[in-house]
Each structure stands twice: as C-alpha cells, then as structure tokens.
C-alpha cells in the first residue's frame, strides 16, 4: 500500500511565546517495512536535521521572537512494503532492523531498561508472565498484546501524555499510547527488549486513529530481529501502519516536543489525513 500523508499541527497562545525550542520526529525513514518516496516538513525558522541514537530523523528549530501561533506541517508519500523475510510456523513475519552501513545506533539491549513511563509494578509482571512462560515467540507476544488490549480498554480522555504504563494498567483504560507503553513495560520486566513506536494508521472509517502508537519486541538481539505489534487492534502490524519514530517510551518518540518561555493559554489543533494512492503497477 502507498499513502499520501498530511500532518498539520497548530499551537495557539493567549499570551505570546517569547522564545521556544522545538524537537520534531515527524519524518519517517525508509527501512525494512516501508519506503519513503517523498517527504516535506514546513516549520517556522530554518530546521536542522540529524539522526538520533535510535535511527530516527530529528528536526530542531527555534522561534526567537514573540509568536501567538506556531504551525508545523509535514506531508509526503510512503509505501508500506509487503511482508517478506522468514515466516514463523503461524505465518507471522519478523524483520531485521540493523542499521545501514555507516550509521550507529544503540543496541537492542538498550531497550531492556525501564523509564518512569515504562516501569512495571509486580501486578503487571504477574499479569504478563504466564503468556511468556514458555518463551517469547510471536504467537505468545500476540496473545499478551491482545490481553493487554482487553485489560487496558481503549477509552479516550482518561489519560494524558504524562500517564505512565503503571497508572494506565491500574486505571484499566487509556489510548494507544498507554496500551503500547504497558506492552513495552511488561516485556522489559520479563527480560525482553521492547520499544515504543509512533506512527500513522490508515482506517477509512476511524480517522481519529490516524495518529497511532504500537510496540516493537526484539526476538533476537544479536541479529536485531524484531516483530511489531499493534496492541489497540490486537494484531501484528500490516499494510495499514506507517512508522514515524521509535523510542524507549512516548517521550523519546514523540512527534513534537518543545520548551517555551511565555506562551500562556495554549491550545492545540492537530489534523492528520491519510489517503491511499492507486497502484501504479
């Protein structure tokens, strides 16, 4: 599947921002699961681009003068590649995400460490452990992901970006971000590297899910073999998923982060549209 994506973000302030510094992870990279055919980012000022230690494309920009509106626009075309590589006995695909020659990244083992957002309390570990008692092959991980989706029900407006996995698990509800962080936290607590993924999800009906999050779980750290699991939909990721960034949790993969001076009374408007493009073949 090939998609045209348009992501428009506007911050408005009742009191102007005197100065702000912004960090964006709003440009997808080509990799084993997708090819980025074109991408354009529009921001105030002149953004600088770099790669972080996870392989994400990161842009930074500064707004130096007073501003009551800050608009960020990202758009382009991304092709989600058909499944390829080795199949497990249940027909699920894993993928190798080793860095290309000349690019340095952290080891998959770095994703064993918990963060304040991905710490697993004893009750979460006890919940997850039976699913992975005989190993962490894809079917077992998928069963855990589905169980987490039932335990932490999808319910908007019950959590926020600062909600931890432990809090969402205790509450029993949240959004895709919370479900993904619970999966990540549970896997790490059981000694399995896992990372948070931000991205886009295409559903012609449920357009409110266009901005999405899920989890990658490492099956073989030495060979850098991963599987990608959508906890919200209880599935291995497929042609509906476009990846933006990976990180240890929401904070290190967030599409937009910023530090402001001034700028009281912030309101945020985000519009994401995903349009399938006809097959040119």
From TrEMBL:
Domain of life from the UniProt record: Bacteria
SMART domains in the record: TGc
One Pfam family in the UniProt entry: Bact_transglu_N
Residues covered by the Transglutaminase-like domain: 168-233
Entry protein name: Transglutaminase family protein
Originating species: Cupriavidus oxalaticus
Lineage: Bacteria, Pseudomonadati, Pseudomonadota, Betaproteobacteria, Burkholderiales
């Amino acid at each position: 599947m090939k998609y045209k994506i348009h992501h428009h973000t506007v911050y408005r302030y009742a009191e102007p921002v005197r100065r702000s510094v912004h960090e964006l992870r709003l440009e997808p990279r080509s990799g084993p699961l997708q090819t980025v055919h074109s991408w354009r980012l529009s921001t105030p000022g002149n953004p600088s681009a770099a790669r972080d230690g996870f392989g994400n494309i990161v842009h930074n920009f500064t707004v130096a003068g007073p501003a009551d509106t800050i608009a960020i626009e990202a758009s382009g075309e991304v092709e989600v590649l058909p499944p390829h590589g080795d199949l497990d006995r249940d027909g699920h695909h894993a993928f190798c995400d080793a860095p290309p020659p000349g690019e340095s990244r952290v080891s998959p083992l770095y994703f064993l460490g918990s963060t304040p957002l991905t710490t697993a309390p004893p009750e979460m570990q006890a919940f997850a452990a039976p699913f992975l008692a005989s190993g962490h092959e894809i079917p077992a991980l998928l069963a855990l992901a589905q169980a987490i989706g039932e335990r932490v029900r999808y319910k908007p407006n019950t959590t926020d970006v600062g909600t931890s996995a432990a809090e969402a698990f205790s509450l029993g509800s949240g959004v895709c971000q919370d479900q993904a962080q619970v999966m990540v936290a549970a896997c790490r607590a059981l000694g399995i590297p896992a990372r948070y993924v931000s991205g886009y999800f295409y559903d012609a009906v449920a357009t409110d899910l266009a901005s999405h999050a899920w989890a990658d779980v490492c099956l073989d750290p030495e060979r850098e073999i991963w599987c990608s699991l959508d906890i919200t939909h209880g599935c291995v990721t497929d042609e509906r998923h476009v990846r933006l960034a990976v990180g240890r949790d929401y904070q290190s993969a967030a599409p937009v982060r910023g530090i402001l001076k001034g700028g009281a009374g912030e309101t945020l408007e985000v519009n994401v549209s995903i349009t399938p493009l006809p097959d040119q073949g």
